[in-house]
Amino acid sequence: MVSALTTIIYLVVGIYAGLAQQLLVRPVANLDCDYRVDLVRDRLVSLIEQPPRGDEHPRLARATDKFSNLLRDTETRCGTADPTLRTKIVTLRESFDNFRSRHERQASDRRNLLAL
User: Model pTM greater than 0.85?
Assistant: First the structure.
């Protein structure tokens, strides 16, 4: 009897906590854009610092795609928040585009050399 009551109380408290957490999520307008831009910056640095493993490496391709989605989402949510943040986001976009083009050039050069 006591264990059944304890289980019921545990379930009710768990459900209440889950619903309360969903209701306390901040709306998009209050999103912490400073933190998000810092996160994007750190992820880009991490992506750039990965050693080259070949142009067909699936892990790098997945990481690049995930980062692209994160950057696009950050641009959408925080692009109009603050002029300083907008400047940071534009710089991050330019750096990511440079990384992609450099990676594509290196992959092309590698393929051409291997074809010799």
Answer: no
